[in-house]
Amino acid sequence: AITTNAAGAGPLPTTLHYCQRYDFANHTFAKRKIRHDFFRCDGTPMDFDADAIMRELDLLDVSGLSGSQKKVQRRMAYMICHLIPLINLALEEYKVDMNC
After folding, report:
1. Where do the DSSP E strands lie in 1-100?
2. Is 21 in a helix, a strand, or coil?
3. Please, which of 38, 74, 88, 95 could form a disulfide with 100 given CB 3.0 to 4.6 Å?
């Protein structure tokens, strides 16, 4: 079964690889670059600016990139939009569990 996004623009990824490096719109996620002490009571969430990501996505159509390059950039944006909020949520849950 292929999952499609709400806008019907095509299939969504069926597997998300957390071990890769993702860069888009001045956002980076790389599991080996996460601070080793990220999960602590005074830990700060990773920066996430959805508006900046959306602006960058809007510019892809006029960027001069090839179709395959645009596809890679959209995948990067998708992963950033998934991973950073998820890791920030995990930090919030850690703080609750640890009674911070």
Report:
1. 21-24, 27-30
2. strand
3. 95
CA dist., res. 62 & res. 57, Å (int): 10
DSSP-derived secondary structure letter, 11: B
Apex 33 CA angle, 39 and 13, nearest 5 = 95
- The pTM of the full predicted model, rounded to 2 decimals, is 0.81
- If we measure between CA atoms, which residue out of 47, 44, 65 comes closest to residue 56? 65
Structure tokens at 41: 């009571």
Residues in the chain: 100
Extended beta strands in 15-99, E state: 21-24, 27-30
In this predicted model, what pLDDT tens digit does every residue of 2-47 receive, in sequence order?
455 555 567 777 777 788 899 999 999 998 899 999 999 999 999 9
Cβ neighbours of 38 (radius 10 Å) = 14
Q: Crossing angle, helix 50-60 and helix 67-97, to 10 degrees?
A: 170
